[in-house]
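Question (not urgent): is this output format expected?
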Amino acid sequence: MKKMSYFKKKGDSYIIFTATGLILSLAMVVLIMTIILVKGLGFFWPSDLVQVKLQDGKAYLGEQWAESTKHEFDTDGNRITHEEIQFKIGNRDLYGLDFIWLSRNEIEKMEKPKNAFSFERLGYGNFYGFIKSLNIGDKQFNYLDEQSNNAVEAAHDKAVKNRHEIKELENDINKLNTPLVNLQREISLLQLKENKTPEEQNELEKLQKEEQAVTDKINPEYQKLSKKLESIYLENQNIFLNLLTADNREKKLLLADVVRIYRPNDFNVLEKSWIYVKKFYEFVADEPRESNTEGGVFPAIFGTVMMVLLMSIAVVPFGILAAIYLNEYAKQGAIIRMIRLSVNNLAGVPSIVYGIFGLGFFVYALGGTIDQLFFSSTLPEPTFGTGGILWASLTLALLTLPVVIVATEEGILAVPRANKEGALALGSTRWQMVRKIVLPNAMPGILTGLILAISRGAGEVAPLMITGVVKLAPSLPLDASFPFLHLDRKFMHLGFHIYDVGFQSPNVEAAKPMVYTTALLLIVIVVLLNILAIYIRNRLRKKYKTSVF
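Got this back:
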């Protein structure tokens, strides 16, 4: 029998293997986070504009995006290497594309003109060019110097202010018309019935009279708002810039369609940093635009956080109750062991299966029943019988329920048996013992389950795609209109936003930075939610030192 070497006896080889595994794991995490941070945070930096002139006379103005080395073979089989540069040339409405690859051998001249402007637009992406003149009404001002910059900024501020006012007026008109629209819908439903009863006919005539009364009541205010809206809209149509591209094409650009104007080549680091801060704030606080490839992701942030909160509210009570029953009340035996095995197996079920169950049970069965009982007047248009944030949250609560049950059971088992028996010996009922002894000491374990549930639930996408998440939600689930919390509304989610932008966007190259940035934001939100839960858990650890968690 060979003697085991001293090296193996000490176990140094196993220590090296385990340390190597840890180092590789940490290295992969650091690599992923570095890529996401660099690609995501760099998206907001205002890059300099480079004007290139090619040997064939063509000219482009844009941001230098990437470099690549290309290898080819000539007719004689010789390997030829040449470098290419990718430029974001913008001006999609003129060129039909945002990016172009140019060989360095084709470039005759590269420069960074000081008077080159970057225009971030509501549609068609960025526009890169030079200002020729500013038009305000019937007046035209040729662009000459710094004083012209001030005039452009003032005109842009006016156009943006008008744009916001137009949006407010449209909202006011919609609110004003809401009672009339609801009445017209009820009238249409009654008119569609072929054989009306006398009661239905009387109801129809009553609604028609009410419709006329509402129309007469709101008409003066409607006319007033409409005239004001038309006036502001016409004013914005007459505030525009005449622009020139690098190849001397002319373009008329309404300032109301511009989000931001700046000259990156003429900015110092401090000025660029201020633009960076404003663009980052826009990303966090505004709504998306351009097929979700530009603008902000606030609706997705709001939807993600609200869904996680609703999921947590639903899953924690049921998980705790199930764990308490299994450990403190149920008679241990084959059936309980089978239940525990089933709970553990449920944790491994693919998430899409939960999504299908949520669609069938929550949306169609439960939601359809609610519509029949309480919203029959709006049928056939469903209220709860379609996807919404409530059904998506309950589906994810079901998905994460096994995690909470298992973690809660571990926390309950960690409570010393002597504490439980001592409470019962002093005359406490079993429920009093559970409430006063078991739950407080098991709370760190319960919060551990909640942390794991948040981490998994916040990143799930597949179940949400069929239970309520959408590409673009017209309104938030929480607003100032009664009943304030609208659980039937569809919502946006950061995980689905990443999928949609990364794989469904018509402009893949332009969407890449948004994918990284949104992924970074999702990670930050999950980490913040977990930090909050961990903070509470640590406070409970100090309070109940008997817990092993």
